[in-house]
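Per reviewer request, we include the raw input and output of the structure prediction for the construct analysed in the revised manuscript.
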Amino acid sequence: MTYVALGDVSLNLDAKRVPVRASFRRPGPYPYYGASGIVDWVSDFLFEGRHLLVAEDGENLRSRSTPIAFLADGQFWVNNHAHVLTARPGVSDIRYLCYQLQLIDVTGYLTGSAQPKLNRSALDSIQIWLPDLATQTAIADVLGALDDKIAVNERANSIASALSQSLLARASASVPSVPLGQLAVVPRRTVTPVPGGVWHFSLPAFDDGEVPKLEDGTDIKSAKQRLDRPSVLLSKLNPRIPRVWDAAKIPEMHPAVASTEFIVLEPRSGSTAELAAVLRMPATVDGLQSLARGTSGSHQRVSPADAMALEVPDVTQLPAELRRTLTDLATASASRRTESGRLAATRDALLPELMSGRLTVGEVA
């Protein structure tokens, strides 16, 4: 096995990064990346093509609740909380480098106690196993095939969501508006998780594919909201970035809880799909954003009381056929998310075996 320093097999483009405070960002079609992924959408871009982004700071470097290394493609902007790398031509495959960094424990490379930081020199010094370029590409192709299918499912779900919104937008003009509280109730079931398996509906889990994570209750350090019935979870945090989780089916075998960063909504009648669809409508998102409070543009929240008073279309008055269509589209999307979860589990099981050389691409085939 040949181990090399990451800085010797990659090119660092950190000098091209430009941070922009939230109050100065202009909305647009280009993703704006930070340490853990997309944090906003802006009107211009700095980078084009496939790049590897690596978190530079934040507690996630220790906790690894979300990936610390991920690929960005197309046209995008990056702030100064993520390192930007490309492959060294003829030496490394950028996808392979990404998969390697997903495995490596970077704790020993970090500085800072209150705010962990992975500085440029530490990043460059990280030791990775680097086989020949053909082997790197073959490994990346195997793992990438699984990620590609996950991406196909994500695109299909985006299309389904857009179709739901289009159908709802046309039909909503013919139904009255009512306070959100007339369509849903907010249950009060706060619990402190106990030792044992717990299905955790958290913001990181939402951002990582809308699949709850099975965690040990002892690892969940704060009180949560118990989920007993089909619900829609509406994020209080930064409503300008809508996070609406249609939890139509609560997992079995273990208790299920939701982060207190969500408002838990149980439909008074109808399906969770209908309620989720109305919460994703641009007018609803704008209304929630207008109700958000907070001094920081990146840490604003909307209160449950304000959200429940917001006027939204009464989806229970929609034609029965449209209501069935909204539910069918949501059910298919949930099925694809479940499949993506299984694919991700397969990828995660193969990752350490392929990256260590214990398993070859030929053996996988």
